[in-house]
Design a protein that fits this description.
The protein is built from four helices and 31 strands. It is mainly beta and 434 residues long. Strand 13 and strand 14 form a beta hairpin. The C terminus is likely disordered.
């Protein structure tokens, strides 16, 4: 049975929820060391949207549901980068002028034309400049600002409910499972490795590669109040009489950060999604800064030595395997990441020795934040689209021990970056390409 086109348009007052989900097995030893195995190369995807059904749209919707007895439908990808019509066209027109030709629009394919509150399926024949030539004419006049979107093969839930307000007006909340393997998300090309060499390299932008791992360099939306949970993995021995003894088999305190990030454009939202796609959900590892002012007052910076006014700083973090990387934010907004080689005492103060010269004056430092090696705390990620170009994304990370990337078990860290430290590329056929 061929899939049925479902001509729905989302009610953007309620937004569209676009969920991507990987599947990862996580094996944790008593000392907190993890081994992780990803079971999906591409994430499963589902879309939840509220639709308003009035007039003939209610009838057309009911007809489509009754025709899709096996649940297979075709819908528009509402969150895609749509091509916007720049001119109004008349009924039967076969040439559409658009503002740009997105990457998915290559010709010889079906697409969906969203015109206000209605959707119609069209066939794209070929592309000529900024003109889209259709195989057949459009039905009815199509106004300026209409969107051309890609088609998604999906499966309806076993039960689809509607709320009836009158005999002509209903609403429905649909959850559609995109058919696995039909539409894949390939992450955009990675930035160059920003690990400092003999001279400090400044990092500008939302992301970078730092010592073989992808680094998230985007601040969360503090209006949504990020949450940080400190996980003390101690064990207690209590016989319900006498003293109680606790043990700490895990030599570090793990943090779980849950924060909302806002993508103010389609490209920014996809860049945040790519972090999740590269990591394969919980399988990969990335660097996540706290963005807090985590260091005591800086007394001096000489070469690769940062002296701070707190002797207890070394006692607390000197041997901690999680606190091994920092992010220096200068007052001019530039970012400078470093790995910590050691911590020592000097004259009642703490001295942090970094891997390379810092080359930043103390007076120019806005803040020094910890930068933790982390993994996603969940295998699913939801993009909450407010429009088809603006979305909120809630990300949750769990911190890990900062081991050298090449010392991680198997190729987990390669899943997050695709690169060895020396620039070699991991191939799926288990072959090195240097």
């Amino acid at each position: 049975m061929p899939p049925v086109f479902l001509p729905i348009v989302p009610n953007w007052q309620n937004g569209v929820r676009d969920t991507y989900e990987f599947k990862t097995d996580v094996f944790v030893s008593r000392d907190g060391t993890e081994q992780r195995r990803s079971q999906r190369v591409q994430p499963r995807r589902s879309i939840t949207a509220a639709v308003l059904l009035d007039g003939d749209r209610l009838r057309v919707f009911s007809d489509a549901i009754n025709a899709a007895k096996d649940g297979k439908v075709q819908v528009a990808d509402f969150s895609a980068d749509g091509a916007v019509l720049t001119e109004t066209v008349a009924d039967g027109a076969t040439v559409l002028k658009v503002d740009h030709v997105p990457a998915w629009l290559t010709g010889s394919q079906p697409a969906v034309l969203l015109t206000g509150r209605k959707a119609q399926k069209v066939g794209v024949d070929f592309i000529s400049g900024n003109q889209v030539i259709l195989t057949a004419g459009v039905k009815g006049a199509v106004g300026f600002g209409a969107q051309l979107l890609p088609m998604l093969p999906a499966v309806l839930s076993a039960t689809t409910s509607t709320s009836v307000y009158t005999n002509l007006v209903s609403t429905s909340s649909l959850t559609l499972q995109v058919e696995p393997g039909t539409v894949t998300r390939e992450a955009d090309p990675l930035p160059a490795d920003s690990s400092p060499t003999s001279e400090t390299k400044q990092v500008i932008g939302p992301a970078a590669i730092f010592y073989g791992r992808y680094a998230l360099l985007r601040k969360p939306n503090y209006l949504q109040q990020p949450q940080v949970a400190f996980n003390l993995a101690y064990e207690s021995v209590d016989y319900d009489r006498g003293v109680v003894k606790t043990f700490a088999p895990v030599p570090l305190v793990s943090r779980t950060l849950t924060a909302t990030y806002m993508g103010v454009s389609h490209a920014e939202t996809m860049a945040l999604l790519d972090i999740f796609v590269r990591a394969k959900g919980r399988a990969g590892e990335i660097y996540v800064p706290t963005w807090g002012n985590d260091f005591p007052p800086i007394l001096s910076i000489i070469d690769n030595k940062i002296m701070v006014d707190d002797p207890n700083f070394t006692n607390t973090y000197g041997d901690d395997r999680a606190h091994k990387a920092i992010l220096i934010r200068k007052k001019d907004g530039t970012l400078h990441p470093f790995e910590i080689r050691s911590m020592t005492f000097s004259g009642g103060n703490s001295v942090i020795v970094t891997d390379n010269n810092v080359s930043v004056a103390p007076s120019d430092v806005e803040a020094v934040s910890w930068m933790f090696v982390s993994r996603f705390a969940q295998d699913s990620l939801t993009l909450e689209w407010r429009t088809n170009g603006v979305a909120n994304i809630t990300l949750s990370f769990t911190t890990l021990a900062n081991l050298a990337a090449e010392d991680s078990y198997g190729s987990n860290w390669i899943l997050a970056t695709g690169y060895w430290r020396d620039g070699g590329i991991w191939q799926d056929a288990a072959v090195w390409e240097d």
